[in-house]
Design brief:
Strands 2, 4, 5, 6, 9, 10 and 11 form a seven-stranded mixed β-sheet that branches. The chain has a four-stranded antiparallel β-sheet with strand order 1-3-8-7, with no helix packed on it. The radius of gyration is 13 Å and the shape is globular. It contains no helices and eleven strands. By secondary structure, it is an all-beta fold.
């Protein structure tokens, strides 16, 4: 089992940057593909980005491509989401998750989730 704790959220002006971190417990972190999702008020949770176990591949939602970067440090059991050029539409609770099986963009494909961190982007 993996426990995930997100941090780094906050309030930022449009055009600004934030870096989210997700710290994982356990010695099996490096065996998991990891993902970031987000959920805005009144909306379904949506895919943001995924990174494979050895960082060989990354995948992004079209809405964040070229603005967000997912990375990981397996020695630190941590996955990151660098968010640049933030927009008010990026306002949401951001969650990290450990992938199980299925398609990367589907929330049902992930079986461990963090509690989330709030990101608010003001205009």
């Amino acid at each position: 089992q993996v426990q995930l704790v997100e941090s780094g959220g906050g309030l930022v002006q449009a055009g600004g940057s934030l870096r989210l971190s997700c710290a994982a417990s356990g010695r099996t972190f490096s065996s998991y593909t990891m993902g970031w999702f987000r959920q805005a008020p009144g909306k379904a949770r949506e895919f943001v980005a995924t990174i494979t176990r050895t960082s060989s591949s990354t995948y992004y939602a079209d809405s964040v491509k070229n603005r967000f970067t997912i990375s990981r440090d397996n020695a630190k059991n941590t996955v990151y989401l660098q968010m640049n050029s933030l927009k008010p539409d990026d306002t949401a609770v951001y969650y990290c998750a450990a992938y199980n099986r299925g398609t990367y963009i589907d929330t049902n494909s992930y079986h461990y989730w963090g509690q989330g961190t709030q990101v608010t982007v003001s205009s």
